[in-house]
Amino acid sequence: MNAHPALTARQHPVVQVSNLVRSFGQGSNVLDGLDLTIRSGEFVALLGRSGSGKSTLLRTLAGLDEAPAGTVTVPAERAVVFQEPRLIPWKRVWANVALGLRTADARERAAAALTEVGLNHRLDAWPLTLSGGEAQRAALARALVREPKLLLLDEPFAALDALTRLKTQGLVASLWRAHRPAVLLVTHDVDEALLLADRVLILDQGRIGFDLHVNLERPRRHGQPAFSSLRSRLLRELGVEEENPDEPVEELRAPARSRAPAASATRENHAVWAASTDALARS
Length: 283
Ligand SMILES: Nc1ncnc2c1ncn2[C@@H]1O[C@H](COP(=O)(O)OP(=O)(O)OP(=O)(O)O)[C@@H](O)[C@H]1O
What we know:
six-stranded mixed beta sheet; about 35% helix; about 280 residues; binds adenosine-5'-triphosphate; alpha/beta; 9 strands
C-alpha cells in the first residue's frame, strides 16, 4: 500500500510504522494495526472522518502520545505545527523561534527563519501583538529553524481566514520546496490535500484505508481536469456527495474554534494554549 511506483529507491523511508495499535480504554481501537511508510522529502496529507484518529497518529509520530503498541520509527529531527500557534506570550517572537536552540547564533538562526516566513520585521515583537496569520508563520519558523527531516502539521491552516489560509498554504509549499522535509499534514480539506501533497491517505477504521498518488504538476490549481478527477475520487472514498466540482469543499471540517482542546492539549502547557487561543480570538 505504501510503495507507489513513482517513489524511487532514492527516497529512503523516514517514517516507518508497523502494526500500530492505540486505544483509549473504551470501545474499539482508535488505531488498529496501522502500517505507514513516509519517504524522505515526501509531502503526505492525511484525511479521514472526525474522530478517525488522525491527530492520534500525528501525536504518536511527534512523540507526544504514550508509547503505543507496534513499531514506530521516526527521525530525531522532527517538528510539529498545530492548529493554534502555541507561542509563549512572555517571550519575544525571535526567542519563541529560538526556543531550545543552544548555539550562540540562536538569534541569527531565528532571524533567518523569520525572514523566510516574511516576519523579520517582527523579530522583537511580543506574540500577542501578532495577527493570527503572523503567529502561525512564527510557529512555522520555529519548526523550520530546527531543520526537521519530518515536519508534522496538524490542521495548521484551520483557524485562519480564507485569504490568509491560501497565503499560508503557499508559504508551506515554498518552504517545502526549499527545504524538502518529509511532511505529514493532517487536514479536513480535500482541496488543500490535493494542492499540496504527493500522496493523500485516508484513515479509516484505524488503518490507512486509501492511498492516492497525486501525479499533478506544481503549482496546482482548482478546476484543472486532472485535479477535479482526483478530487472526485477522494470524495467518493470519503463518502461525501459532490455538489459542484469547481467549488472548494470543506464538508469534513470541524468548526475551528469550537474544537475542544482536550485531545491536543492534554500533555501540553494549558496556559500557553489558552494564551494562543486568546491571541487568535483577538485577531
Ligand atoms: N487523550 C484522549 N483520551 C481519550 N480519548 C481520546 C484522547 N485523544 C483522542 N481520543 C479519542 O480518540 C478518537 C480519535 O481522536 P483524534 O483526535 O485522533 O481524531 P481526529 O481524526 O484527529 O479527529 P478530528 O478530525 O475531529 O480532529 C476520538 O474518538 C477521540 O475522542
